[in-house]
Write a structure and sequence with these properties.
InterPro entries: Ig-like_fold (IPR013783), Ig_E-set (IPR014756), IPT_dom (IPR002909), Plexin (IPR031148), Plexin_cytoplasmic_RasGAP_dom (IPR013548), Plexin_RBD (IPR046800), Plexin_repeat (IPR002165), PSI (IPR016201). It is a single-pass type I membrane protein. It is found in: Cell membrane. By secondary structure, this protein is of the alpha+beta class. The longest helix has 71 residues. Among the domains are: 96 residues, ligand-binding face of the semaphorins, domain 2 (2-Layer Sandwich); 133 residues, no CATH class; 46 residues; 80 residues, Immunoglobulins (Immunoglobulin-like, Sandwich), CATH 2.60.40; 90 residues, Immunoglobulins (Immunoglobulin-like, Sandwich), CATH 2.60.40; 193 residues, GTPase Activation - p120GAP, domain 1 (Orthogonal Bundle); 153 residues, GTPase Activation - p120gap, domain 1 (GTPase Activation - p120GAP, domain 1); 120 residues, Ubiquitin-like (UB roll). The N and C termini lie far apart (98 Å). 29% of the residues lie in helices and 27% in strands. Strands 39, 40, 41, 42, 43, 44, 45, 46 and 47 form a nine-stranded mixed beta sheet that branches. It has a seven-stranded antiparallel beta sheet with strand order 54-56-59-58-57-60-61, with no helix packed on it. Strands 63-64-67-66-65-68-69 form a seven-stranded antiparallel beta sheet, with no helix packed on it.
Length: 1589
């Protein structure tokens, strides 16, 4: 304890001010009837009049469902379309229950005789079930407002199967059913329909019984397989006094035999006789001990359940009390009631209901008992009130904190009070938010963390914290509350909960006691302690009553460097100025006495150093010992001139501010200050003040636009006089008028001095740009852009989105700019900036620089023609220039691909000095200039006529030839040496590339592992979104079908008329029995496979239907599969290539095998292989989304698939968006995105991060949300395409974050699309706008595909250009290596989990592999390689490859196309590893094959060892396999759509009916079993088929 005691001294006086938690509330339009809470999600559901509200835990509205008013009549039996006198009727909510097992909310209202409905828990606007045509058996609630209804969820076994039900306790209404207690089923079963009462028991449903005793149900709960109801009722007859009862029955009682009632008595003579509300919870250690010691409740342990009941008195004034009933005492009394009936002991004193003398004639607890068993008042369970209140208590909730029990009691005055339940219960103030307006109803409950309390009044629900400890700032007031929630956290010096105090477990670390004890210091040694030196100090603390002593350590010298500051310290700290040390110290630490007066003041600086002669400016004097208070300043002079003390700006001892007075002449002098009793301080010569007058002479520029922004430069003398706080500059003092007169510019110094410049500045009209030429520019060629303007001003710039250039020439009517050179051909917006006025130049675009192909030579006075591309894109004939040698040509005609020039009439000279010296240089350079761009496009030769003799011609030809040969030999040798150097250089570059790829892999892998830690944590917490068995089988079996997710096997919806449903169901059951005949089923399958129109797709679908239909008997299904496989093997071994067996799903049995493997390996996927597969999927998805992904062409920068590789180097920036989800609280979620992401991609990443704890199917869809960017006070809706989308020719770019200029840490709001009529019309308009945008345009994202013009131009390109383009594209293949290296560990982990032999191998794999080995031994031509192929085809290629390529078959995830492309590469690698064939790779092999070429051999060894290990395992017997299959059938069959599968199977039987009948007639075994007759009977029942019957 000694280690923390010194810290106590520092915190005893410090109260940490924690921010007060806001009070959350939600108001409704109509009264609230019921409230329900989903304990899994924390959502709160309000059942109000005419509405159901869905709120999150912070009471933000998520959804609302309207339930009324609707047309209804009091005596009407639904449906109301047949009723008379209908009128608008309010719908009062009578019952609200959360059914988490199937994700529904049970809602029962007062309309339509109390019919209920099922709403979606995640969106109450979505109705799951409702029917008003099932009759009185489904009327669960009451139509009358005063009749109370309670309910509780339970489980009931029917036919040895558990069913979810809810029990309803309901009072009597004149139009209601007579069922006091009823059990309602929530699914259709047998002849029962949803919400039907499935138990008929006369004991609680007899007609004479209900109206005689008026029941008021208040509470229902379940505990230890019992269901309890708490209610009050009258005695019947003329006695209207209420009595409180608790009733109990077994949860699994199918007849209500166990229903028994016990009267509860609260107070002397049952004074508090009418129960109002109740709460069931543990009592807590302290209360349990107090209850046991009282002797009233027996022995109560802290884990026993106690029923806390608030009841009111009906005698005289309204008075209420809280009573406690241990649940075990209630159960003991109920047992005594039943025992008394059996033994007939003191029966009349026990039984309350006794209208008939039934106990002599009937056994107790029988269904035919005319009345329930209940106790009289003499046998009631009594309890004394623990708390009494002089008004009506209406609600109760109880919590345990630090072994203490706190009751929260609501009453009719609109307040919730807290009561500490102990041997002496005491009420105390709960804190803010607990007092509301209106009646507190019974819906009082805690949130999931027990840290907040929900309080419900008539039209409002409020969420308040259970404690308000932070409002108490000291120990005494904290413990004085006597609130078990609040204690004094000693080391932190604040009032807090024990759980929030960091070292509360240490002795005296957290102080709380009902005696209000705090810490008291009785001794402290040594008496002084240095703050700068660490030292162990013995401190003795004792606990005292009522009084606390504060001890404070104080450092006198800190911030008190001079005497005046020291004397200004609070006297209670006893600080003195010690002259010996010249410091401020504690009084007892100074050997000498403190001087009565401080030293003379010292001046160290003044600001400013210059001022005008008229004065009026403030001067700040800085120094030390400048007084203790403002009255100490007696006199101030500056340069001999009095200075007025500005008292309000005085700072003790260190700073004095005064306003200087006027003087007549320029002068310089010291500053003098007089303090206290004549003590004076004078500044040094280095700190002096000068009086002088500023003179302003001119202003530049002389005019500027009314838009402002013009920077004025004022020139003159002595302008730095005074400080900027005293300086004001004004252009006249009138509003801006255009055009204005020449205005005066005023420069004011302080209050008295002003210098002016007359007629110095004029406001003129804003300039306007009327035209600009040219309207386009080349990329690198700099052109002059001319803009006519009126008028022009001083500052002007031309800039695009990225580049800025100043003007090169300007006058009042025009400006010339040099167009900026840009680095690529794309759309740039161009602007002219004139002071504060910005004007966009439209149109202005950049084109690729022109290219030149060839030049036609010309003779004198003949045209020179130059051919190329792009000449006229951004240049006219007048702007183009051409030169032959040093002479300029006339540009005659300028076309896009041709340039016609008039050459000089005389032969020009060469442009370069070298050519001028070389007189033999006949060809002259042809140079074209566009703007500042200059191109040497060829040469022009002027032909001359020569007549040379033959002796001169021959040497002239031979000598150059010999020279050329010599030069060629020298060049060849030099080229060879250069090639060798280039080879070494390329080799070095490849080594560097390999090193960089290795480093990049390492870095990417490290980053990925760090990012994957969060996913690993989610997985360790069980957050892998595994699909349930039904969804898994639906997707594996039927998702690949032609109807996909709409397949009838997935939806489970059959269109069968109600009138024929019973007949069809019975016939399908007969058909199921027929399928269980092996003779029939084999004939059925072989008949279908013999038909030519029974194609491969039909075989696959038929096999999946058969799997579902026979799922209840998987051992029989396995037997059928073995039989068919044996026949298939015989065909392949004897007449076909045996290695092709099971290679494809060309037969029914091959698909049956696939389904059988899927069924048997489901649990193995969940237990073992699922986690590494999920990690691999998440790692691939994360790695791909780290870089750009083209949303249009589905290509990514980071991928494993070369065909899906983004072949362009897209620039991007990682942004972090601060995401606020509308309607889900104020929490902001940071989400990392790329600025090149489309808006849809950004939405996907936001949904992925915000709803990461929800599976994909429960997350909002991208189209169902909107994204709003809030850069300031206004917001902007972001979308993929809108009117601002950039357009390049016929191509339109999809909008990205960069398009909207969204920056890092920007705030965006994600909101749901509201499906109202207005939103529908708005969406319709948006779709019309989008269609209009796309009508004539093609859309691209990152990479624009080559259009027709580009393709045509590419055909003209040279072979060299094409090869260079290909080489450049393939450079990006190194990214495959980087991604592969990053993901390698995840791939290896998955392969190891799948190819791991031993105890982890599913029994089905061992069983089937042994079956293949046995069959191979029976055939001589089956070698080891063939067995290997059989096993590979049956398991890895048939099951694992399917799951690997489709993770959404086993997980609730979305697999995008780019992720699917990478998974396909890994799946192909897995397939290659499972084959025996050696893969010979070459330079022409696909990149995907080359990528994992090195690892294939390792994986092949793993496969061989896996097969070998399985062969060595202990065999799985038929009995063991059948036992395992039976367990699978029993666990999952009831979840599948078996009836639908039978119906679909029969469609095949109907289609091929004649062939099946013929096959059965030819089979003696079928004839003996009369299978033909049975099929005919089924056909007659199902479709009224005319048969031989």
């Amino acid at each position: 304890m000694a280690t923390w005691l010194p810290a106590v001294l520092l915190v005893l006086q410090v109260a940490t001010a924690s921010s007060e938690e806001p009070i959350l509330e939600f108001s409704t339009d109509t009264p609230i009837n019921n409230v329900a809470q989903d304990l899994q999600t924390g959502r709160v559901y309000l059942g109000a009049v005419n509405a159901i509200y869905q709120l999150n835990s912070s009471l933000y509205l998520e959804a609302r469902a309207e339930t009324g008013p609707k047309k209804d009549a009091r005596g009407c039996t639904p449906p109301v379309s047949t009723c008379q006198d209908l009128k608008d009727t309010n719908n009062t909510n009578k019952l609200l229950l959360v059914h988490s097992d199937n994700g529904s909310l049970i809602v029962c209202g007062s309309l339509y005789r109390g019919i209920c409905s099922l709403l979606n828990l995640t969106n109450v606007k979505e109705q799951i079930y409702y029917s008003d045509s099932k009759g009185e058996r489904t009327y669960a609630a009451s139509t009358e407002e005063h009749v109370s209804v309670v309910g509780v969820m339970a489980t009931l076994e029917i036919d040895d199967k558990p069913f979810s039900v809810f029990l309803v306790g309901k009072g009597y209404g004149s139009m209601d059913s007579s069922k006091l207690i009823s059990t309602r089923i929530v699914q259709n079963y047998r002849d029962w329909v949803v919400f039907e009462s499935i138990i008929e028991a006369s004991t609680v449903q007899a007609v004479p019984f209900v109206p005689k005793y008026l029941h008021d149900f208040r509470f229902a709960f379940k505990n230890d397989n019992f269901v309890y109801f708490l209610f009050s009722r009258t005695l019947g007859g003329t006695d209207n006094k209420n009595y409180s009862f608790v009733s109990r029955l077994c949860e699994n009682d199918n007849h209500y035999y166990s229903y028994t009632e016990l009267q509860l008595s609260c107070g002397v003579k049952n004074r508090y006789n009418k129960v109002q509300a109740a709460y069931l919870t543990d009592p807590g250690k302290v209360l349990a001990q107090a209850m046991s010691e009282s002797g009233e409740y027996g022995n109560v342990r802290e884990w026993d359940k106690v029923l806390f009941v608030v009841a009111s008195s009906e005698e005289g004034t309204i008075e209420s009390a809280l009573c406690m009933y241990p649940l075990k005492n209630i159960n003991q009394k109920l047992l005594a009631i039943v025992t008394a009936c059996y033994t007939n002991n003191d029966l009349q004193n026990v039984l309350f209901y006794n209208p008939f003398n039934f106990c002599d004639a009937y056994k107790c607890g029988a269904d035919f008992l005319p009345s329930p068993l209940a106790s009289r008042q003499e046998f009631a369970l009594r309890a004394n009130p623990v708390f009494i209140r002089q008004n009506l208590l209406t609600a109760v909730a109880v919590a345990v904190e630090n072994d203490h029990t706190i009751a929260f009691l609501g009453h009719n005055a609109g307040e919730v009070i807290k009561v500490h339940l102990s041997s002496h219960p005491e009420a105390y103030n709960p804190g803010p938010g607990y007092k509301t307006s209106g009646y507190i109803n019974k819906n009082l409950f805690f949130d999931k963390t027990q840290a907040h309390l929900y309080i419900t009044t008539e039209k409002k629900i409020t969420k308040v914290p259970v404690q308000a400890c932070h409002l108490k700032s000291d120990c005494q007031s904290c413990v004085a509350q006597r609130d078990p929630y609040c204690g004094w956290c000693v080391l932190e010096g604040r009032c807090s909960r024990r759980s929030e105090c960091s070292r509360a477990e240490e002795k005296n670390g957290w102080l709380w006691s009902p005696d209000q004890q705090c810490v008291k210091i009785v001794s402290f040694h040594p008496p002084n302690l240095s703050c700068l030196k660490s030292q162990q100090v013995p401190v003795h603390l004792v606990v005292c009553l009522w009084v606390c002593v504060s001890v404070t350590l104080y450092n006198c010298s800190l911030g008190r460097e001079d005497c005046s500051l020291c004397k200004n310290a609070d006297p209670k700290y006893q600080c003195v100025w010690c002259t010996q040390t010249s410091s401020c110290v504690y009084e007892l630490l100074c050997a000498s006495r403190e001087p009565e007066e401080c030293p003379d003041p010292q001046i160290t600086d003044i600001t400013p150093r210059f001022g005008p002669l008229k004065g009026g400016i403030a001067v700040t004097i800085k120094g030390s010992n400048l007084g203790i208070q403002k009255d100490d300043i007696k006199n101030i002079t500056v340069a001999g001139v009095p200075c007025k003390h500005l008292r309000e700006q005085y700072s003790v001892s260190t700073s004095v501010v005064c306003e200087i007075g006027p003087t007549m002449i320029n002068k310089t002098g010291e500053v003098e200050i007089e303090v206290g009793r004549g003590k004076k301080g004078i500044s040094t010569k280095a700190v002096r003040f000068t009086y002088r007058n500023p003179v302003a002479q001119s202003v530049s520029p002389e005019r500027g636009p009314k838009a402002g922004g013009t920077i004025l430069t004022i020139t003159g003398m002595n302008l730095n006089t005074a400080s900027k706080h005293d300086l004001q500059i004004m252009v006249h003092n009138v509003p801006c008028q255009v055009p204005s007169d020449h205005l005066t510019v005023n420069v004011q110094y302080g209050k008295q001095t002003t210098t002016t410049i007359s007629s110095a500045f004029q406001f003129s009209s804003n300039p306007s740009v009327s035209d600009h030429q040219p309207r386009s520019s080349f990329i690198w060629s700099v052109l002059f852009v001319s803009l006519p303007t009126q008028p022009l001003h001083h500052y002007s710039h031309l800039y695009t989105d990225q580049y800025c250039f100043k003007s090169t020439f300007k006058n009042d009517t025009s400006i010339k700019f040099v167009s900026p050179a840009v680095n690529e051909s794309q759309f740039f917006r161009a602007y002219v900036q004139l002071d504060n006025l910005q004007t966009e130049l439209t149109p202005f675009e950049y084109h690729p620089d022109p290219t030149f192909d060839r030049v036609f030579h010309a003779r004198k006075r003949v045209f020179v023609v130059s051919q190329g591309r792009g000449f006229s894109k951004a240049m006219t004939a007048k702007e183009a220039q051409a030169f032959v040698g040093d002479a300029q040509c006339n540009v005659n005609t300028l076309q896009d691909d041709k340039l016609f020039l008039d050459p000089p009439s005389t032969v020009p000279s060469a442009r370069s000095k070298r050519q001028r010296r070389d007189t033999s240089s006949d060809p002259l350079d042809l140079v074209i200039k566009f703007g500042n761009g200059e191109w040497l496009v060829g040469s022009v030769r002027y032909e001359r006529k020569y007549n040379l003799p033959l002796p001169i011609i021959i040497p002239a030809v031979l000598v150059p030839m010999l020279l050329i040969i010599a030069i060629s030999l020298v060049c060849y040798r030099r080229k060879s040496q250069q090639a060798e150097r280039e080879y070494e250089k390329v080799k070095h570059q490849l080594e560097n590339l390999e090193e960089s790829v290795r480093d990049r892999c390492k870095k990417e892998f490290t980053d990925l592992m760090i990012e994957m830690e969060d996913h690993s944590n989610d997985i360790s917490e069980g957050r892998i979104p595994f699909l349930d068995y039904k969804t898994y089988t639906d997707r594996v079996f039927f998702l690949p079908s032609k109807d996909g997710a709409n397949d009838v096997m997935i939806t489970g919806k059959l269109d069968i008329p109600e009138s024929r449903r019973a007949t069809v169901t019975q016939a399908l059951n007969q058909f199921s029995n027929l399928l269980n005949s092996k003779t029939f089923l084999i004939n059925f399958i072989r008949t279908l496979e013999g038909r030519p129109d029974f194609n491969a797709r039909a075989k696959v679908y038929f096999a999946s239907l058969l799997t579902v239909a026979l799922h209840g008997k998987l051992e029989y299904y396995t037997d059928i599969m073995r039989t068919l496989l044996l026949g298939l093997m015989e065909d392949y071994v004897h007449s076909k290539n045996p290695k092709l067996l099971l290679r494809r799903s060309e037969t029914v049995v091959e698909r049956m095998l696939s389904n059988w493997m899927s069924i048997c390996l489901y649990q193995y996927l969940k237990d073992s292989a699922g986690e590494p597969l999920y990690k691999l999927f998440r790692a691939i998805k994360h790695q791909i989304e780290k870089g750009p992904v083209d949303a249009q062409v589905k290509k990514a920068k980071y991928t494993l698939n070369d065909t899906g590789l983004l072949g362009d180097d897209v620039e991007y920036v990682v942004l972090t968006l601060q995401v606020l989800v509308q309607g889900e609280g104020p929490d902001i979620t940071p989400v990392k995105v790329l600025n090149c992401d489309t808006i849809s991609q950004v939405k996907e990443k936001i949904i992925e991060q915000v709803y990461k704890n929800l599976p994909h199917s429960q997350r909002p869809k991208v189209d169902s949300v909107t994204l709003e960017w809030r850069p300031g006070s206004t917001g902007q809706i972001l979308s993929d395409l809108d009117v601002s989308s950039q357009k390049e020719g016929r191509w339109r770019r999809i909008n990205t974050l960069a398009h909207y200029n969204v920056r890092d840490n920007a705030t965006v709001v994600l909101s749901r699309v509201q499906h109202t009529q207005q939103s529908y019309e708005q969406n319709h308009e948006n779709h019309e706008e989008r269609n209009a945008l796309l009508e004539d345009d093609k859309v691209f994202h990152l990479v624009r595909p080559a259009d027709e013009l580009d393709e045509m131009k590419s055909k003209r390109g040279s072979i060299k250009d094409k090869s260079m383009t290909k080489a450049i594209t393939e450079i990006y293949l190194t990214r495959l290596l980087s991604v592969k290296g990053t993901l390698q560990q995840f791939v290896d982990d998955f392969f190891r989990s799948v190819l791991c032999s031993g105890a982890a191998v599913p029994p089905a794999v061992k069983y089937f592999f042994d079956f293949l080995d046995e069959q191979a031994l029976r055939h001589e031509n089956v070698d080891e390689e063939t067995i290997h192929i059989w096993k590979t085809n049956s398991l890895p290629l048939r099951f694992w490859v399917n799951i690997l390529k489709n993770p959404h078959f086993i997980f609730d995830v979305h697999v995008s196309e780019v992720v699917d492309a990478s998974l396909s590469v890994i799946a192909q690698t897995f397939m290659d590893a499972c084959t025996k064939t050696e893969h010979k790779l070459s330079r022409d092999s696909p990149s995907n094959k080359l990528l994992y070429a090195k690892e294939i051999s390792t994986y092949k060894r793993m496969v061989d060892e896996y097969y070998k290990g399985i062969r060595q395992m202990v065999s799985v017997s038929d009995q063991e396999m059948n036992t395992h299959l039976a367990e699978v059938s029993r666990a999952h069959t009831d979840k599948l759509n078996t009836q639908v599968a039978l119906h679909q199977l029969y469609r095949y039987a109907s289609k091929y009916y004649d062939g099946i009948i013929m096959s059965l007639d030819e089979d003696p075994a079928a004839q003996s079993k009369q299978l033909t007759l049975r099929l005919q009977q089924i056909a007659a029942a199902l479709e009224n088929k005319v048969t031989d019957l």
